[in-house]
Please model this.
Amino acid sequence: MKKRVLSGIQPTGRLHLGNLIGAIENWVKLQDKYDCYFFIADLHALTTIYDDPKNLRDDIQQATIDLLSSGLDPKKCVIFKQSDMPEHSELHLLFSMVIPVPWLERVPTYKSKIDELKGKDLGTYGFLGYPVLQAADILIYKADLVPVGKDQLPHIELTREVARRFNQFYGEVLPEPDDLLTKFPVLPGLDGRKMSKSYGNTIAISDKPEVIIKKVSTMVTDPARVKKTDKGHPEVCSVHQFYKVFAQDRTDRVAKECRAAERGCVACKKELGQLLVDYLGPIHQRRLEFERDPAKIKKILSDGAERARLVAGKTLKEAKQAMGLI
Model:
């Protein structure tokens, strides 16, 4: 039997190139090799946008379109919406009875996210308990593997600790998942920081060609290079990082011309903008097909939830039986 893979993505704003390179393209490859369950993590999204969810419904729709347009196939994997699966929330509640609060307070991303979203009141139970819900997402499918970047490894270790603690109290019900470490380049945002919806520095997968070109024209380059005749330092340039990902065959030539002051930043950005437009072209073409048929999107998510429930419902029943609830 194929090993089972589980992963999700938050619809907090439009999905961007960092999501595409760091997660989605990897998922597309995994669906041919594993028994894959991929979900739109709309409940997780509410941990940070609970006070302003007016765009959430549309963001869920657009995120689903992005996943399908990028190559996820509901015939090869299960695609569903987290909030359509109350089993996740119920298992999360059961876990919350036994998980020590200090376990959650020590998760590295807890403090880093608070720093990233300064000014936002994140002193809520939902935000603190985010890793417990994430553990429920994973364990309710008894996932063998969870594809993650290096920064998410503490979450997977916490999930294993949750499984161990549950099993210690109630018997061997939940298997511990392994991480499937995904090596991918970290894309900088338009301002040079990590590309993040929180920073508002992203290029969205769904951005129109003219928007992409305009955004690329604003990207931060070598701060020490004022004029075209100044020799550049591509190793500190955000634009050059994009060339490494989207045009590897041009990277050395572009870097050489930059260092020799034979290529200006404007020309470099113009070329990169067109490269990104071409790269996203097939995705945009498939997006048009899905955008014309919202009923199809709704059905894919509904069918996905039905398939997911066959697995999740069984695990939840086992957990409740172990705890003496049924």
Remarks:
- Residues 294-322 form the longest helix (29 residues).
- The two ends are 30 Å apart (CA to CA).
- Residues 4 and 143 are 5 Å apart (CA to CA).
